[in-house]
Amino acid sequence: MHPALLEILVDPGGGGPLTLEGGAEDSEIISGALIATDGRRFPIRAGVPRMVPGRDSSVEIDAGATQRSFGAKWAQYREEDTDRLAEFQYRWFDQRFGLENEDGFSELLTGRRRILDAGTGPGLCAVRCARLARDARVVGMDLSDSVTAARRRHAQHGNLDYVQGDILNPPFRPGTFDFVVADQVLHHTPDCRRAFHTMARLVAPDGQLAVYVYRRKAPLRELADDHIIDMTAQLPVDDCLEFSQQITELGRELARLDAKIKLERGVPLLGIEPGEHDVQRLIYWTMLKCFWSEELGWHQSVMVNYDWYSPVYRSRHTEDEVLEWCRDAGLEVDNLDVIESGISVRATRPR
Ligand SMILES: C[S@@+](CC[C@H](N)C(=O)[O-])C[C@H]1O[C@@H](n2cnc3c(N)ncnc32)[C@H](O)[C@@H]1O
After folding, report:
1. What is the DSSP letter of 169?
2. How far is the CA of 106 from the centre of ligand 1 (A)?
3. 311-329 burial string, b = 16+ CB within 10 Å, else e?
4. Which end of the chain is more exposed for a tag (fewer CB within 10 A), N or C?
5. Which residues lie closer than 8 Å to 39 by C-beta, 6 or more apart?
6. Mutate to test the pocket of ligand 1, among 51, 142, 163 (most ligand atoms within 8 A of CB)
7. Pairing assessment for the beta strands 114-118 and 177-183 based on DSSP bridges
């Protein structure tokens, strides 16, 4: 971590100050510890401060299930897929958040001094922010150990740090950041609404929050999801990966049929609209998640299915809920994008 990060890190347990022990305040601090006023220690390992309180702490954290499921996911993450995944994610991000393209995102980041990518996973959004906003300090935070590999991979950026920390107990004071992004993350916490408000509090006046959460689906799909995930979230990692491969094969073979059907009536009660449907898409959106993308290929498609079927927490939400969260947090909506899979919102905290 860079010494400048010390200016904004606080005790996640109560917001108190931290003192550095052991690490020289060099250009980078690779190991040492941050000590809270009551003596609790937060180690710095491999250049990453570990701000997740221990099990005996009074600070509430989820029981490690999220760390396990995403830790396993990111362990499957392959260097050779990085560029393809980044390109896909960046394009989709710009579309959903109403930015058109990278220039639009660059413009949005102009003048921002502190940026947080909460639930950064392999750190792709954080590194993009660090590249586009060179004068800003950027922090990528994740509950899982994905931040160790992210820091190693992106160590060349002097304005970027990774932190292992919990969105529900963030190691930052309210109003610290002028851009906070939590993309495809908050629905994986035990309380999505609370996570939204915790992130909103970190946004300074004139700053923005950008969030994407899963959208509630058609009734049969919701039923199937609840039932299947009750089973798959309990499976050992290898078995859940095997299940994800089976589901990916099903999705791929249905997609390759390239079959279409035309429905005059549809079944609106089940979310099936009249009109022409691609059979794989129809099954996917209204009955069973079986993701397949020719563009992403086999490995990434399996990971998308694993992402869905392995986490213990994966709540789904409506547009009205998201708008209410913004209102309650005192944020003004700049852009709202609702697609079948999820809801993206970008909102400003007025001065
Ligand atoms: C689906 S991934 C999204 C990663 C990244 N934002 C992206 O768009 O590629 C969700 C990430 O959220 C992280 N996460 C889940 N709960 C979290 C929490 N309470 N605090 C911090 N990160 C969390 C997971 O570890 C995982 O890396």
Report:
1. B
2. 23
3. bbbbbbbeeebbeebbeeb
4. C
5. none
6. 142
7. parallel
Strand partners, 32: 44
180 Cβ contact list (under 8 Å, min separation 6): 115, 116, 118, 199, 200, 202, 203, 207, 208, 209, 210
Q: Report how far ligand 1's centroid is from the alpha carbon of 2 (Å).
A: 23
Query: What share of the chain in percent tops pLDDT 90?
Result: 84
Retrieve residue 79's tokens. 């260097």
Counting atoms of ligand 1 from 1, which one is nearest the CA of 67?
Answer: 25
| Alpha carbon of 307 to ligand 1 centroid (Å) | 10
Q: CB-side exposure of 53: number of CA atoms within 13 Å?
A: 22
Q: Name the residue at shortest CA distance from atom 10 of ligand 1.
A: 185
Q: What is the DSSP string of 39-71?
A: S-EEEEETTEEB-SPPTTSSS----SHHHHHHH
Q: H helices then E strands: how many in the chain?
A: 11, 13
Spacing, Cα 274 to ligand 1 middle (Å)? 36
CA 44–ligand 1 middle distance (angstroms): 20
CA torsion through residues 224, 77, 280, 337, sign: positive
| Enclosing H/E stretch for 290 | none
Predicted confidence band of residue 121 (pLDDT cuts 50, 70, 90): very high
Residue-wise pLDDT for 302-341, tens only, equals 999 998 999 889 899 999 999 999 999 999 999 999 999 9
Domains of the chain: 64-215+317-348 (3.40.50.150), 219-309 (no CATH)
Phi/psi-derived region of residue 39, left when phi > 0, alpha when psi is between -120 and 50, beta in every other case: left
Q: Whose CA is nearest to atom 17 of ligand 1?
A: 143
